[in-house]
């Protein structure tokens, strides 16, 4: 049976790291075959915040947004989402 460590820690939250908790579960009589990550390491994406939004001059359904991606320089992004607004944050590939 597979279950997440996060789910287990909702019920009991010992001050143990992942491997120590797996060892204790095994010692209690429930064999732990493996401890696996849910997903691979996440990279190449940052959280960006919309600073301004203007209608695209050549398209009815597009917006030109100025966003802060943490690099220090504002970046312009053409966006087709109708619900984008100033102050919202979204994932931005780098």
From TrEMBL:
UniProt xrefs under PROSITE patterns: TRBD
Keywords: RNA-binding, tRNA-binding
Domain of life, per lineage: Bacteria
InterPro entries the UniProt entry points to: DNA-bd_dom_put_sf (IPR009061), NA-bd_OB-fold (IPR012340), tRNA-bd_dom (IPR002547)
Annotated protein name in UniProt: tRNA-binding domain-containing protein
Domain (TRNA-binding): residue spans on this chain: 39-94
Coiled coil start-end: none
Organism: Vreelandella olivaria
Pfam families named among the record's database cross-references: tRNA_bind
